[in-house]
């Protein structure tokens, strides 16, 4: 009986360590994502250049004061699947990250 109790304790410790490692990985990825968000905002000309923004499915739609200062190439390199420009508005196709992006930009404003 003593050996099986030791095994249970050992498995419990291993599971606890795996949970701690998983939490650390998740937190580090969120931090990286926020860094990416800051980079995207800077590519859009800074938060003062952003008039309004919304999410429509996989698209992040942003209205800007000045579209000419946007670094579209930088946005593409970050993983945007496409960018459509209409007047002072950009529709950036991001996929599933569009909703998460809106939440993080809300926190920046």
Q: Could you outline the blueprint of secondary structure elements for this entry?
A:
Blueprint: H1 2-43, E1 50-56, E2 59-64, H2 72-77, E3 82-86, E4 89-93, H3 97-108
Antiparallel strand pairs: 1-2, 2-4, 3-4
Low-confidence stretches: none
* Helix-strand makeup class: alpha+beta
Strand order in the largest sheet: 1-2-4-3
Query: Overall mean pLDDT score?
Result: 80
CATH fold title: Gyrase A, domain 2
Number of domains: 1
CATH C-level class: Alpha Beta
- Please identify which CATH superfamily we are dealing with: Glucose permease domain IIB
Give me the Rg, rounded.
21 Å
CATH second-level architecture: 2-Layer Sandwich
Helix proportion: 55-70%
DSSP strand content: 15-25%
Termini Cα gap: 60 Å
Biggest sheet descriptor? 4 strands, antiparallel
Report on this structure:
The protein has 109 residues and is of the alpha+beta class. It has a single domain (2-108), classed as Glucose permease domain IIB (Gyrase A, domain 2, 2-Layer Sandwich), CATH 3.30.1360.60. The chain contains three helices and four strands. It has helices spanning 2-43, 72-77, 97-108, and strands at residues 50-56, 59-64, 82-86, 89-93. Strands 1-2-4-3 form a four-stranded antiparallel beta sheet, with helices on one face. The longest helix is centred in the N-terminal third of the chain and has 42 residues, at 2-43. The N and C termini lie far apart (60 Å). The model has no long low-confidence stretch (mean pLDDT 80).
């Amino acid at each position: 009986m003593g050996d099986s109790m030791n095994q249970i304790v050992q498995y419990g410790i291993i599971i606890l360590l795996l949970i701690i490692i998983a939490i650390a990985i998740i937190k580090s990825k969120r931090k990286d994502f926020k860094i990416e968000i800051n980079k995207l905002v800077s590519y859009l000309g800074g938060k003062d250049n952003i008039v309004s923004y919304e999410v429509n499915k996989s698209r992040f739609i942003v209205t800007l004061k000045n579209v000419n200062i946007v670094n579209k190439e930088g946005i593409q390199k970050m993983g945007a699947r496409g960018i459509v420009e209409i007047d002072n508005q950009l529709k950036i196709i991001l996929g599933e990250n569009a909703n998460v992006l809106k939440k993080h930009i809300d926190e920046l404003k």
